[in-house]
Every structure is written in structure tokens, then in C-alpha cells.
UniProtKB/TrEMBL annotation:
<dbReference type="Pfam" id="PF01814">
    <property type="entry name" value="Hemerythrin"/>
</dbReference>
<dbReference type="InterPro" id="IPR012312">
    <property type="entry name" value="Hemerythrin-like"/>
</dbReference>
<protein>
    <submittedName>
        <fullName>Hemerythrin</fullName>
    </submittedName>
</protein>
<feature type="domain" description="Hemerythrin-like">
    <location>
        <begin position="3"/>
        <end position="121"/>
    </location>
</feature>
Amino acid sequence: MDAIVLLREDHKTVEKLFKQFEKAGEDAYDEKRKLVDQMIEELTAHAYIEEEVFYPAARAAAPETVDHVLESVEEHHVVVWMLSELKDMDPRDERFDAKVTVLMENVRHHVEEEENEWFPEVRKAMGRNQLQELCEEMVKAKGRAPSEPLAVSSARQ
Ligand SMILES: [Fe+2]
Ligand SMILES: [Fe+2]
């Protein structure tokens, strides 16, 4: 297991939740609430470990990718605020599905950029050992990740 493999696994977990949401019936309010609560938990922890561990390490190892780092943090900022709004929104609210749809669009775009444009450059810049060490650090960070989306540092940036 290395840091990038771990992050890609998280992305897959979230994509599965998105697919389930898209398949859920219009009136499946309890199911949609449960899925969105899981998205909040997964995405908050994922943004946290990226911002606390991976992004700073990637910026140090591949300083030429700083634009990716900065853009990614801005994208996290939007996502964590949307998560925080969804936390308190009734799934019967007419805006609920629309907000989840835009959240999914944002996250999918973000994941695509991370995986296809940025991570390959980071992998090249970091050695195998560093990626493995970073993975251990991220697993530990996940254990102390907040459940509140706005506790992630990009929320305040
Ligand atoms: Fe990210
Ligand atoms: Fe990510």
C-alpha cells in the first residue's frame, strides 16, 4: 500500500456511494439521507488526510505542481461547505437532490484532475519508500479525522 493507492481507494469508495445515490428512487428519502451521511463522513476524512498530510508532502516533493495544490484546496473548500449544508438539509427539500448532484459533479472533476494530472507527477517525484511512509501517516491521520466538514482547514481558507 502506498499513499496514492490509498487515496485512489477512497475515491472508489466515494464513487460507489455516488452511483448508489443515482440509483436510489426519487422518494427513497431514508436511503438518500443515509448515503449522504456516508458521503459526508468519507469525504470529510479524505479531505482532512489530503490537506494535513498528502498535499504538504506533495508540494514539498514536487514544487512545480503548486498550482494543482492550490486549485485542489479551493475545490475542497467548495466541497466541505456543500457537505456542511447537506448535513442539515432535509432530503425532502426540493434543493436536496440538486445540491447532491452538484456536489458529485465537483468531486468527480476534482478526482479526475488529482488522478490523471497531478498524482502521476507526485509519484515520479517521490520515491517508493516515501510514498509508503506517507501512507502510514495518512492511516494514522484518518484515525483522528473530524466528522464535521467545516473542521477541515480548507473550510477557513
Ligand atoms: Fe482532493
Ligand atoms: Fe482525493
